Amino acid sequence: MTSFTRFTAMASTAIAAASIATAGMAADIFVVGGKPDDSFWSIVKRGAEDAGIVVEAQGGSVTWLGPQNYDNLGVDAAELIRQAIDQGADAIVGPDWVPEAMDPAFEAVVEAGIPLVIYNAGGIAAADKLGAMN
Question: Are 93 and 132 in contact (CB under 8 A)?
C-alpha cells in the first residue's frame, strides 16, 4: 500500500466522522471497519480515532467496531451494524462489503433515522440504494 493510499484511507474516515460530528454536534458515531490488526484497517482505525478527538471536543464519541476475523464477514459486519443501532448511535459509517448480508442492517439504520455513510465498498450505487451518504 502506498503512502498516498494510507493517507487517503485515514483522511477519508477522519473527514466523514468529523463532518457528521460538526453537523450533529455531540454525536456518538460508530465506524464499522476491518480487523484493527490488519495493516490497511489499522490506518483507517487511526483516522477514526483522530476524528474522535474533534468529536469528543464537541461532547460526542467515535467507536470502532471490527470483526474478530474475516471468516463470516457479511453476517458479522451486519451484527456490528445492529449493535451500533442498539447502542444508540447518532451516526454509522461502514463499508457495504457483502450487500446481501449487510443491506438489511443498513436499511434498519436508515429506517431508524440514523445518518449513514457508506465508504470503502459499495460506492455511490450502494449509498443511493440505501439512502446513505458516500
Answer: no
Exposed / middle / buried, residue 68 (Cβ in 10 Å: 0-12, 13-18, 19+): exposed
Residue type at 71 in one-letter notation:
D
Q: Give residue 47's identity as a one-letter amino acid code.
A: G
Q: Measured between alpha carbons, how far is 9 from 14 in angstroms, rounded to an integer?
A: 9
Q: Are 103 and 109 in contact (CB under 8 A)?
A: no
pLDDT (tens digit, 0 to 9) for every residue of the chain, 134 residues total?
A: 555 444 445 455 555 555 554 454 668 999 999 988 889 888 989 988 988 898 888 899 999 999 999 998 999 999 999 999 999 999 999 888 898 999 999 999 999 999 988 888 877 887 888 878 77
Walk me through the domains of the chain, giving residue ranges and CATH numbers: 3-130 (3.40.50.2300)
Dihedral over alpha carbons 121, 87, 61, 98 (to 10 degrees): -10
